[in-house]
Amino acid sequence: MSETKIALVTGANKGIGYEIAAGLGSLGYRVGVGARDGARRETAVEKLRAVGVDAYGVPLDVTDDQSVTDAAELIERQTGRLDALVNNAGISGEMDPGWVQDPTALDLEMLRTVVDTNVMGVVRVTNAMLPLLRRSASPRIVNVSSGVGSLARQADPDTEIPIMAAYAPSKSFLNALTVQYARQFAGTDILINAACPGLVATDFTGFQGPRTPEQGAATAIRLATLPDGGPTGSFFEDDGVVPW
Questions:
Q1: Nearest to 59 by CA among 76, 74, 77, 80
Q2: Quick one: DSSP state of residue 156?
Q3: CA separation, residue 233 to residues 96, 111, 229 (Å)
Q4: Radius of gyration of the chain (CA)
Q5: Which of 29, 90, 138, 208 is the 20 to 30 Å CA partner of 112?
Q6: What angle do CA 42, 47, 51 make, to 5 degrees?
Q7: Which residues are catalytic?
Q8: Contact of 80 with 1, CB cutoff 8 Å
Q9: How far is CA 233 from the centre of its chain?
Q10: What is the separation of C-alpha 3 from the centre of its chain, rounded to a whole number of angstroms?
């Protein structure tokens, strides 16, 4: 089996996901660019290849069971294993001005859609890719979360985090699942952690935020390349551990 390490990044056609793919590629990984939009996916692959990254496209809609199954089969044919899975794909759901989602007026269908992508999508992809990850000597899983998912930060009376009654709880749910996976993987070589990219200026945030996509990708890249014996079941940002 090839010595080249293999990664899959979901939602990798733009923004933070693209920079995670680029960063792993610069470290010598062969990177699967997971994205549902075919044109954007292939454009991202071409851009990555132009800077020397060994990238290939993976058609992937994390909300669709068959799409996820097909993606796992494609990676099986392409590489035969995975060394790193970065669950980056996510959505915010519709927000009012100021990034507010009022819990007293929350659209339940919108909430279902956010949870289906940000939480259930991670479970779909992770479980489908586990057979491939188990073939790696040092498998790593990174769930791209957000500091707004920190209950400690949300509950702080001095918090500046807006009320985000769909997006923030979806990331809290994702964090809780990360812990459950870490418990299940205890005693194995699989390390799984959550990463907070910070407030990054991308189309996801309306290009508001002090951080670049490259800066936002840094923690996820570090967690995807942890050495054996590294942390698992934790939540990190650039400055260290994020409180649950």
A1: 74
A2: -
A3: 33, 26, 12
A4: 17
A5: 208
A6: 145
A7: 167
A8: yes
A9: 15
A10: 24
